[in-house]
Amino acid sequence: MNLLILGATGPTGRHLASQALEAGHSVAALVRDPSKLNEPRIEIIKGDATDSATIASAARGRDAVLSALGTGKSFKSGQVVSRAAGNVIAAHVKRLLWVSAFGVGESFEDARLLQRAFFRTLLSDVYADKKIADDLIRKSSAEWTIVLPVGLRNGLRTGNYRVAEHLEVGVFPTIHRADVADFMIRELIERKWVRKTVEIST
């Protein structure tokens, strides 16, 4: 498949890009700083996902768009994710796999009390922006899948994780970024969760 990846220079996006190549897909990446992605097999498109014209051009002719956009370590959203989501939808993307976060939207009810306190305080601005993005995507005509990972951490791909619309999780649940990417690349072909929002955890 001919894929466009957003957030490919981030810690989860790098796994998405490498696993997509491993699976035999053609990969393009929209990045603000091309120097951060040294992979000759990837078509590098310099630009910003919050720019509508850039997204429209980059997404043209793609079979799917996969997004691992985030705000890094910042607790301020800058409305980056919601603006990018609006641009992707306006580009009439066929298939969209979008990384959000556990605790956003209805998944807040699946969180433990300690987690909810964290979501309501430090992450309130970031999560509010992610919810706007998720709601926009759900209303779109794209064949979307929204992925809500619990606490992300580094580590090797294990293939040992749970996926469901609602999961029972512990107080400090985690998932390897490589496993989130594994699920998304598999879902491209398996299409088990089209127009579904899923939680993912070990």
Short description, anyone?
The protein is an alpha/beta fold and 202 residues long. It is built from six helices and ten strands.
How does this structure look, described?
- The chain has 202 residues and is an alpha/beta fold.
- The chain has a single domain (2-201), classed as 3-Layer(aba) Sandwich (Rossmann fold), CATH 3.40.50.
- Helix content is 34%, strand content 23%.
- The chain has helices spanning 11-22, 52-59, 80-90, 113-120, 124-138, 177-190; strands at residues 2-6, 26-31, 43-46, 64-67, 95-99, 143-149, 151-153, 162-164, 174-176, 196-201.
- It has an 8-stranded mixed β-sheet, with helices on both faces. A two-stranded parallel sheet has the order 7-9.
- Helix 2 crosses helix 3 (80-90).
- The chain starts with a strand and ends with a strand.
Instruction: Write out the CATH superfamily name.
Output: NAD(P)-binding Rossmann-like Domain
- Reading the helices and strands in chain order gives EHEEHEHEHHEEEEHE
The CATH topology is given as Rossmann fold
Q: How many beta strands in the DSSP annotation?
A: 10
Helix content: 25-40%
Tell me the number of helical segments per DSSP (H or I, 4 or more residues long). Answer: 6
